Structures are given as C-alpha cells and as structure tokens.
Amino acid sequence: MIVNETAISAQELKDAQYFHGHKCPAMPQGLRAGHLAMDILGVERAQGGGELIAIVETGDHHFSGCFADGVMFATGCTVGKGNFVRKPVGKFALTLLNPKTRKAVRVVPRYERMSQCLDMDFFKLRAQGVPPYELDPDVVAPLIEDVLTRPWEEIFSIQTFENYPYEKVPEVFDAVQCHSCKELVVTSYAKQFDGKWYCEPCLDAIIHANTATK
Ligand SMILES: [Zn+2]
Ligand SMILES: [Zn+2]
Question: Is the pLDDT of residue 117 over 80?
Fold first, then answer.
C-alpha cells in the first residue's frame, strides 16, 4: 500500500509530549499510527465528536500504554468528545473509523517490532520501576527518532475495512435533578423510583438502605 504519509513536525511532537507529560517512544508511536490511519482514510483531525472514531486496544497498567495518548493527540479523538473508544485487550492496535463512509483502517504495530522493544534498555529500566521522566535522555531520544523516521511498513501492518459496523448514538441534551442529593444528572443516566428521579449512587443507597431495615 502506498501512503502519502504526513510528517510529524518537531512542534507537534513537542506539543504532544507536553500533553502526555514525558518523553517516551510509545506516545510518538501512537502519534504516528494516528496520522497514518488519517492519511489512509483521507480525513482531517476530528474537531467534534462525530467525524472520526478511534478504537484503541491497549489495556491498563502495562508497558507502552502511552500509545493511546499519541493516538488521541494526532486524531483529535478524545475521551471528552466521546469518540475515543477503549477496547482493552492488551494489544497495540488502533482502528480509525470514518462514520460517514463506514471505511475504517486498523493500524497494528508489528510483532517483531514490539517484541524487540522489550529487549531495549528503555524497557528494561522501565520494568525495574524507573519512571520514563527519570531516564537518561540519551536512552530515550534515539528510540523516539527511530519510531518517527523508520519506514512505516517496518513498524506497522495495516488492515482496511469497507463497511465497518457502526451505530450512531445521539447526544443527550437534557438533565434532571436528583431528588436525594439535588445534583444535576443527565437524563439517560438518571433512574426513576416511586415517581421521582435519582442519580445512580443515590438510588443504590436508597435500595440498599431499604433492604437493610427489613
Ligand atoms: Zn509515555
Ligand atoms: Zn443523587
């Protein structure tokens, strides 16, 4: 597949590192995966919640989870806009979907690449509990350079989809007041009990309290 890949500028890398909080190779790998996916789909960075959906397969508390932040920064798909979907299966893939055309691309870091990473000093030190911001920049910088400049085919493999399953979820614009705590709760999350609206924690407390007195 021939892709006219968007180069990641020094400024974008810097801004993404600021957002992410430290310098590591996994975040730039996500940055590149995000750009590659956008280049293949021929789409722009998401401004709202409806143009693009990113599905990221990293889980919690494992090496290279930073990949997800690079994807967010590159694609504009974020948790807050609701277009960043976590599918935590402990893999390093990004699927980017254009909901209008239903075309999608899955960008997967190659097995050889990822398994080699685990033998690098960076990951050995990280495994020993050294936080990334305390590592010698000379250990980290060549890894970042490598992940940004090596031909993408050596780092990623690509799958494309023509009719990716997608169901649009409309945004809810109404809310009610919880009868118990008096806080505002979005209606689709509120529950009705005895004709009154409650937030989920309050309703849980009421139901459990009732059970306890019986
Ligand atoms: Zn990181
Ligand atoms: Zn409440």
Answer: no
| Per-residue model confidence as pLDDT tens digits over 172-196 | 899 999 999 999 999 999 999 999 9
How remote is the CA of residue 17 from the centroid of ligand 1, in Å?
Answer: 8
Ligand 1 centroid to residue 44 C-alpha, Å = 25
Q: How many whole angstroms from 48 Cα to the centroid of ligand 2?
A: 30
Kindly give the distance from the C-alpha atom of residue 82 to the centroid of ligand 2, in angstroms, as a whole number: 24
Residue 18 CA to residue 31 CA, distance in Å, equals: 13
Find the helix or strand (DSSP H, E) in which 176 lies.
strand 175-177
Q: Where in the chain is the domain with CATH 3.30.60?
A: 175-213
Edge to edge, the sheet with strand 94-98 lists 84-86, 53-56, 94-98, 103-109, 156-161
Rounded to a whole number of angstroms, the CA Rg of the chain reads 21
3-class secondary-structure state, position 172: coil
Q: Are 64 and 28 in contact (CB under 8 A)?
A: no
**Domain 175-213, classified CATH 3.30.60, yes or no:** yes
* Count of CB atoms situated within 10 Å of the CB of 27: 29
